Amino acid sequence: xxxxxxxxxxxxxxxxxxxxxxxxxxxxxxxxxxxxxxxxxxxxxxxxxxxxxxxxxxxxxxxxxxxxxxxxxxxxxxxxxxxxxxxxxxxxxxxxxxxxxxxxxxxxxxxxxxxxxxxxxxxxxxxxxxxxxxxxxxxxxxxxxxxxxxxxx
Length: 153
Known about the structure:
The chain is of the alpha+beta class and 153 residues long.
């Protein structure tokens, strides 16, 4: 049996690397021009560290805005830390890249969306396994590039 190329995982890793590079540049040099980011994260992913009140208010997903005021942006190969202002209350967040669901910079109509293919054992009953071919299952956590038409003027 020959091994195949896992394009989904390669794209996923490349897109996470792109976000890492962008955030590293912002940490070193600040946000250039009108650039700003909307980053949606899955608050249930292991390693996400947010204030208890934020987790209670956003138990599944939280969208943060990196624009006018942010502090202590630290980026490494696993994720980033940032302090943001929530209603005049600075809060430190620690976000692994695996928790990022979307990354959008509307100033240049750029966006990435990461598909997570969570799989429950109960869902197996919904599939017909009569055809037992060797077609590989699509990779879980594959990345997808999305259209930004809704942000176009």
